[in-house]
Amino acid sequence: MKIWQGDPCAPQQFIWSGVNCTYSSSGTPRVTSLNLSYHGLDGAIPNALANLKALNYLDLSDNDLTGPIPPSLEELTSLTVLILSNNRLNGPIPASLCDGQSKGLLELRVDNHPDICLCHSTCQIGSKGRKLATFTIVLIAVVPALIILLLLSSLLFFFLRRKKSATKLCKWF
């Protein structure tokens, strides 16, 4: 487990691994590059990344990140490279990230995500998810229908048998 404390850019000789900063004479350093690939990250991509306004390179590949790509990443207007490959992300890619990619302003990599909706495509569930969804719908529709059919046939059998018994009794009297 990595423990990160303090400012990732200062003091300069103790800059965090995977972090690049710019240092201006006017004040505080700013994070411009963040490489967190292979860091064992899991859960959702945090919205707090949008606070790194000077960020131009973000690599979150080869972790265990889940859920959708947050719209908050659209706020990173300086971003030129976004690598999200080899996680477990799903859903659509935010529109402005797609626009940046189509205009050549953003290098966007989302390899190995079967449940992610690529830019300018319709959103579809991956083949495993599609099969599971189809099976669930069939199960929800068929099981109640079979139960109703079984109850109706049991009632019909009961009433026909009762009617037949009543007819036999009438013949005796």
What does this protein structure show overall?
The chain is an alpha/beta fold and 173 residues long. It has 2 domains: 1-122, Ribonuclease Inhibitor (Leucine-rich repeat, LRR (right-handed beta-alpha superhelix), Alpha-Beta Horseshoe), CATH 3.80.10; 125-173. 31% of the residues lie in helices and 18% in strands. The strands form 3 sheets. A 5-stranded mixed beta sheet has the order 1-2-4-6-9, covered by helices on one side. It has a 3-stranded parallel beta sheet with strand order 3-5-7, with no helix packed on it. The model has no long low-confidence stretch (mean pLDDT 82).
Report a brief summary of the structure.
This protein has 173 residues and is of the alpha/beta class.
